[in-house]
Fold this sequence. Notes:
This protein has helices at 22-31, 50-57, 87-95, 101-112, 124-127, 130-141, 167-177, and strands at 8-13, 35-40, 79-85, 116-120, 145-146. The chain is of the alpha/beta class. The longest helix is centred in the middle third of the chain and has 12 residues, at 101-112. The protein is globular.
Amino acid sequence: xxxxxxxxxxxxxCASGIADGVGELITSAHAEGWKVGVIxxxxxxxxxxxxxxxxQTGYPIRSAWRTPGSPRPLPAADAIxxxxxxxxxxxxxxxGIADTLALGILCEAYGLGIPVAVQPYVNSALAAHxxxxxxxARLRTMGVLVGDYVPHKPxxxxxxxKYSWTHVLDLLRPxxxxx
Length: 179
């Protein structure tokens, strides 16, 4: 008899102007039976309500590497959702730059075979940069599932009303159900 446990989702939240909406994804993931742990980029920490998210997930938010020998604060991930993914995170991840815990986890996920979905949040001026399209193409060749966000107008702070926090769950569902 195998032990049944709820699947564990890492939510990597980036420093975008809409990062404070990550609770919507956590609520939806819980409703689908996921346990959730949040990994925030260092700059995202100032944009989210850390206490509220920790209360919602039951786990501490991770943003920095733990010291050798210290306990792991989160179970191993069954899948990873990268939300409000910024231009910076997408480009660094595609290049294999692991200079933050969030990027280190994302770079390592490829080698571990962990399903990953990303929902970008960029403006159209940044999305026009050739590095962005190249990075998305590279992530796709790595098996990363890329969401459907249409870049918003630059300098508008826009896109919040058109951003789908839960699209990453739609992308991951078929991959996780087949595991």
